Amino acid sequence: MASVWGAPTLAATTPTPAVKGTIDTRQRFKPINPYLYGGFLEHGANIINHTMWAEMLHDRKFFYGVLSAEEPRPDPKDFRASMAYIHKWTAVGPMDSLSLDKADAYVGEHSPAIGLSPTEPRGITQGHIALVNDKAYTGRIVLKAARPTTVTLTLAEGRGREQTVKVQATSAWSTIPFTFTATGDTMDARLSITATGSGTLLIGAVSLMPADNIKGFRADTIALMKEMDCKILRMPGGNFISGPYDWKNTIGDPDKRPPVFDPVWKALQPNDAGLDELLQMCELIRCEPYWCVNTGFGEARSGAEIVEYVNGAANTFWGAKRAANGHVQPYKVKYWNIGNEMYGHWQFGHMAREQYVIKHNQFADAMRKVDPSIYIVAPGGFVDEMTTGQGIFVAGQPEVKVGSDRDWAYGMLKFSKGKFDALATHAYPPENKRFDLQSGKLFDVKQTLTEWARQPAQRVATMVDAWEEYKKRFPELNDGKVKVFFDEWAFSFRDSYKGTLAIALAFHEFFKHTDFIDMAGYTMATAWLNVSPTGSVISTKGRVFQLYNRHFGSIPVAVGGNSPQPAPAYPVGGDQPKVNTGSATYPLDVMAALTKDEKVLTVAVVNPTEAVQNLELALDGFNSGAKGRTFALVGKSLDSTNAVDAPPEVVIQEDSFDARTRRFEVTPASIRIFHFPRSA
């Protein structure tokens, strides 16, 4: 095995028979929509708050009040609890000096009230704050006191390093700014807010951010997301938006936005990275926003109002509120997702299909009345997803048939025709498992690397099989106007070189169906980054997105070969498509596309095996120049990753090759894109 995985080498001769592939540039398909390189971003617990958002303090509006002692971290094996864990405020001084004032709460249900003492400092404190030496930090605190009170903000950095800022609390709520500059690197600084005297001190909210934040977002992660060149970003959910989420609680003064408990992720949401902030983040990273509205506990009026807030002129009711919040010009958001996985029994607000289609139509009509130009995406629930995701499970009938009462997409097509432009579908195939069509349960399987890496592509193909059946029942789909948005998909949530093989094969399957698959949103977009409290880096997954986004062409062309993919080993249906995915170059997968100007033929070759493979290519309809370029994803092992504050283990390697050569020795577990220039 090669010492470095991923970089195929040219070979003048090959001792073993080569797989033969033929690329015919005369047979072309609809161009690849760059939205296939999109992402999905959900608040889900701390996904946004602790990666993109710059706030360093947890529970800054005191949803949980003040505790006597810090809570222990949950067991890391408890994924959801670990995701939701935050540091909470604890008391300085006796607990009986603290209460929660509900009568004069600044935001939310209550504000901490501290009974002061003339002889000892009393207040609150929070630890585990990460600082970078010489970095400036800006904050603000909202205070009120029965009588004028000097309040001390103390930043303890450890090893005796401590700095203080004095601020004044008066009889009216007031917001007071403060600044610190770190004197060393630490992951365990502590901020304390204390006072001495008499009477009561109330704290409404407190914030601390790096001074270089950009509109509340971390400068480092914003820069990396901009580098990722994300084409479209679906947000803010996801399951998060179907419950008690109310977009109106996410606009205006961030200190006055009430924190809410998200029952889906069982996590606190401060509502700081709200509607305006997320749309402005898209402006910062030059990305098309794709907004999802709440059709769970939400209602059509709210859908119309959010469209007016986002897209309405400044003289409309909600447009005026947007202008007052600092964004006079409309955001002009085109893409709107009406509802998340509303077909799923887990979804807040889930209802019978026959009822939901009416609700969807109400939303679509109300939203388009405000802005007729919007592009609407509806929750699809294709039969493959309804079966393997058990959207509406019935004992003894695990497989959902096309056109049945449990086929959600069929119902949307039948009862909501004209009320959407695209149907959404989601896929999260589990590793090393298959779906049993008889029992409706997953069972363990031992897979080769090829079988493992193929799983996401297989789920794309099962959706394609369903779409072909829908076209038979709804012939109007053949005109190509209704699209599919694969707006949530992921596989293997670890960041490893191994996982990039699965992403690349999924890309190839998307590219084969550009006639109707128009968008894909990877879960989560933050998976393109690896992030610590003080640093970030493009992840291994991010690099494979960059490889294709930057270096693969846009006009797919036909690929043939002499080695077809093996026949399915499992019954067709559920997670098994009618035909296994991949080009007729087994075990390699080859995908080809011309660049937009047709001057370069790009050929992506994925070897999802642990052995060297030999490939011989023939180019029909394309005369290549002599010198080509190659772009390979290279890592030292299948477990290679890119970690913060460490040399990257997975990189994109550029090289040149003789483009007249047609025989290649393809190293194990490799992804490489060849650029054949058109001859002059």
TrEMBL record:
Annotated EC: 3.2.1.55
Under the heading SUPFAM superfamilies, the entry gives: (Trans)glycosidases, Glycosyl hydrolase domain
Tell whether Hydrolase is among the UniProt keywords: yes
Q: Which Pfam family is one of those matched by this entry?
A: ASD1_dom
The answer on whether this UniProt entry bears the keyword Glycoprotein reads no
Q: Which residues form the Alpha-L-arabinofuranosidase C-terminal domain?
A: 487-670
Q: Reaction catalysed by this chain?
A: Hydrolysis of terminal non-reducing alpha-L-arabinofuranoside residues in alpha-L-arabinosides
Q: Which UniProt keywords apply?
A: Carbohydrate metabolism, Glycosidase, Hydrolase
Q: What class of enzyme is it?
A: hydrolase
Q: Which family does it belong to?
A: Belongs to the glycosyl hydrolase 51 family.
PANTHER family the UniProt entry points to: ALPHA-L-ARABINOFURANOSIDASE C-RELATED, INTRACELLULAR EXO-ALPHA-L-ARABINOFURANOSIDASE 2
Assembly and interaction partners: Homohexamer; trimer of dimers.
Q: Mind telling me what this protein is named?
A: non-reducing end alpha-L-arabinofuranosidase
